[in-house]
Amino acid sequence: MKSRRVFLGLTSAVVAPVLWATRVEPAWHEVTVTPVRGLPAMRILHLSDLHCSDGLPASVLLRALDMGLEHRPDVICLTGDYVSTTHGFDEAGLRGIFRRAAQAAPCYAVLGNHDGGHWLNQRFGGNPSSVAMRQMLSGEGVQVLHNQSTVLPNGIELVGLGDIYSREFGPFTGTSPGPRIVLCHNPDGKDNLVNERWNLMLSGHTHGGQIRLWPAPTVWAPVNDQRFISGLHDWAGRQLFITRGAGSPKHVRFGCRPEVSILELAA
Asked: Would you kindly state where each structural domain of the chain is located, as residue ranges?
């Protein structure tokens, strides 16, 4: 009997965290509200890393979007990795997410390394270009800023950059004399922009580490600069905001809930 109790206890100690990491936490979205100073007042809903191919079903991701829309954003910014591969994903569901976002507020997007390009093609045989994903976004009313920029009514210029891994990054297109926000999937892109003028970068890509065994250091985050994994940071006189992402690649999260990010800009 004692051996059986020990066995059951050990089994529960293993099974419970696995069930939590694969069934509970991936769909347990956290809405975070982050004040950002030094820019004209505006509320941004920032979503990234949906990974619709192998993470969460579109219905759960749509619910996450709706959680963000409850905060009535002025602008929505999407920063890439909408799928994990460019085959076999729920295209109708993903289009529905894009359409809902574009109907709710002005919506701007850039692409990630999983959305097409050199890295995805070489590693997974995916589309060698992000053109198809760009067309899907724009077809549902999202304005894609692929190495392009636009000026918002409040004077903020949004500069959107292609992905580094996809070999579609740059050139920087900012021309307005006003404040600038850069949309760049991979926060390591900042190092290529050190000589450009900008105030805030919005990124994803890291998934916040995805599996965090506190207080141990992050064991998985695909960036060179491991100082900046999630949240708001100061860097070289600018600010970086890195969201943990709304999706959960391989349908797993532990100690790192998926994030719906609200940024409250103020002077």
From this structure: 2-266
